[in-house]
Amino acid sequence: MLLKEYRICMPLTVEEYKIGQLYMISKHSHEQSDRGEGVEVVHNEPYDDPVHGRGQLTEKRVYLNSKLPSWARAVVPKIFYVTEKAWNYYPYTITEYTCSFLPKFSIHIETKYEDNKGSNDSIFDNEAKDLEREVCFIDIACDEIPERYYKESEDPKNFKSEKTGRGLLKDGWRDSQDPIMCSYKLVTVKFEVWGLQTRVEQFVHKVVRDVLLIGHRQAFAWVDEWYDMTMDEVREFERATQEATNRKIGIFPPAISITDIALPSSTRSAPSSAPSTPLSTDAPEFLAVPKDRPRKKSAPETLTLPDPSQKGPTLNLPGAVSSDKPSLSKQE
Q: Which Pfam families match (predicted)?
């Protein structure tokens, strides 16, 4: 298990970002999706929790085979997806990622939003007070992002919002920015497979960090698009964008659940919008050892020793003394 805490500040308030995070997630998912790969929304519906109250439960399938490193693509099926389940009780959210093909792999993210510059060192005391973790600050203005994801229009150093007047962030902007908020994210990555655990967990954290950096840069750079939206308007944008994203991914019809009636478990387990990943934990066929492989024979299967009472050919074993050799008799 590898645990890290990420802190990402933005020139927004927590109340403003309640709309912004919904807009950003929907638009980002749509932009990152292409035919056969991307983010498919399976369910997006209200959810009541006895502890956290009213929230929203979203289930997605993230198809990302081409984004895996070569050593990972060699051992996963071509139709490969990760299941994302998110419980949004803003300003507190829980997100989990699992994969039936890799039962020992999981990502667990707890997020809390506060109006400060990332100065709350005890925000996760209830969740991970005694757990050792690295705290990583992500600067949306100054941290480098992968070149293929860079867009000048989404660079906070170059962008200035017409509706809020915020932007053109420079080095040290967090010290003087007002308003300012912080996304605190406690990320746990598990891949309990001997020989691969450290490598995979470090790789996943690198991917998580890049996604967080890009997503929060976009949330601010798109502020003029969502700043005046109401919650009803952003929910409608979310619904329309999700349907468009599902159509963009493949030939399967979208299957976003909008009913308030609970479906039987057998119905909910395999939506018709995409083939389901096999639930078997067996290795794929190309990695399996052939069951009827002929055994190499290096010696006779049976060894028959001669009867000492009968004369006949003598069996000579390597290193043994032959019985045909004359024995030395004791001289009297």
A: IP_trans
